[in-house]
Amino acid sequence: MNIAEPTKKEKVIAAAVKLVVANGFSKVSTAGISKIAGVATGTMFHHFSSKDDIIITAYKTAKRSFIAQTMNCRNENNVREDLKLMWYNLIEWSLNHQDEFRYMQQFVNSPYYGKELMAQDDTWTSLLDWWKAAIKNMQIKDIPIEFLIKIFSTVLYSTIDFLILHPNKRDEYLEHSFLMCWDMVGVDH
């Protein structure tokens, strides 16, 4: 199977992610991105209007890939197993894409992340619908969805951070962490 060579746009995004994770947003320049990507500055600006455009596009790209890990988890009859599959898929993706995971973490704590960007972001729509249906079916606790997702995300990201630092503990802590998350958000009948 042939793996396609990344496009110039993909190379720019990957270079931006790598540089931001290593140096932070403020220390990344378009010249540095261009150099690491191996793409001429003019070509880079053919695909992006500015450094901000590159930074935001890189976040949206990473987030879409992250959220895609939840797409095959849509069995309303067994929410616990769906959530567990999401959990495992999101952790596996994050461990295999550590720069993108770190980039998303940095981005949501940066000045780039705000209500305007969130209003334009539809990557979460189907996942939000899943959570709402699970609450309606009384399989997830009936508390504000923003709070549920914050709980889920906090435990998920903490687990990922831990497993990045302790990869030998993966098998042991995957199940433990999911059970903690389920205890916080799930309803057992």
From TrEMBL:
It comes from the Bacteria. This is TetR/AcrR family transcriptional regulator. Residues 6-66 form the HTH tetR-type domain. Residues 29-48 bind DNA. Transmembrane segments: none annotated. GO terms for molecular function: DNA binding. InterPro entries: DNA-bd_HTH_TetR-type_CS, Homeodomain-like_sf, HTH-type_Tx_Regulator, HTH_TetR. Pfam families: TetR_N (PF00440). Keywords: DNA-binding.
